[in-house]
Specification:
Blueprint: H1 2-8, H2 15-19, E1 58-59, E2 62-63
Antiparallel strand pairs: 1-2
């Protein structure tokens, strides 16, 4: 579960979903921490289908 929680912290969540408390708050990361490793995964979301994504998933009205 800890690994899934870590990976899910790199998902860009729509602001309206955060306001509706449909998701857990994202983990805060220190921007000045030079020793921190970059994220292994970065997942973006939008209502418009991206043209340059490595992989796409459509869920409800959003593209991830």
């Amino acid at each position: 579960m800890q690994i899934l929680r870590e990976l899910s912290s790199h998902v860009q969540v729509p602001e309206e979903h955060q306001k509706e408390e449909r998701v857990f708050p994202q983990a805060l990361r220190s921007s000045g921490d030079e020793a921190a490793l970059p994220p292994l995964i970065r997942i973006s979301s939008d209502t418009v289908k991206p043209g340059d994504a490595f992989a796409l998933v459509q869920y409800n009205d959003r593209w991830f």
